[in-house]
Amino acid sequence: MLLLTLTPVIILGGILGGLFTPTEAVSVAVVYVLLIAVGTRSLSWSGFRASVRETVITTAGIMLIVAAAALLGHILARERLPRCSPSCSSGSPSRPSSSCC
Q1: I need a labelling partner for 13 at 20 to 30 A (CA). Which of 4, 55, 70, 84 fits?
Q2: How far apart are CA 69 and CA 92, in angstroms?
Q3: CA–CA separation, 101 vs 86, rounded Å?
């Protein structure tokens, strides 16, 4: 599988040579590896569908985490918690029941 060892060369050579951006480099590498897999008949359609399905499931999970983090950040910013938290944490111990903000 000497052809597969050229994948990092394609990625790094393309980026460093100014031929494409990192995102484009990965896309070119994926197409290159898919062509090799189809050409050597080491990837069947059922295997391809299974790998695409697994990729979609993993990506959906990551996107849910990113969406939840964005929502939490929006809620915290709307409630002005980043502005209130330093004053709450540096409150004097003589007034433990003082309200924040």
Answers
A1: 55
A2: 32
A3: 10
CA dist., res. 90 & res. 88, Å (int): 6
Distance between start and end Cα atoms, the chain = 64
Question: Distance between CA 7 and CA 31 in Å, rounded?
Answer: 10
> Minimal CA–CA distance to 28: which of 1, 41, 9, 47?
9
Q: Is the pTM of this model over 0.85?
A: no
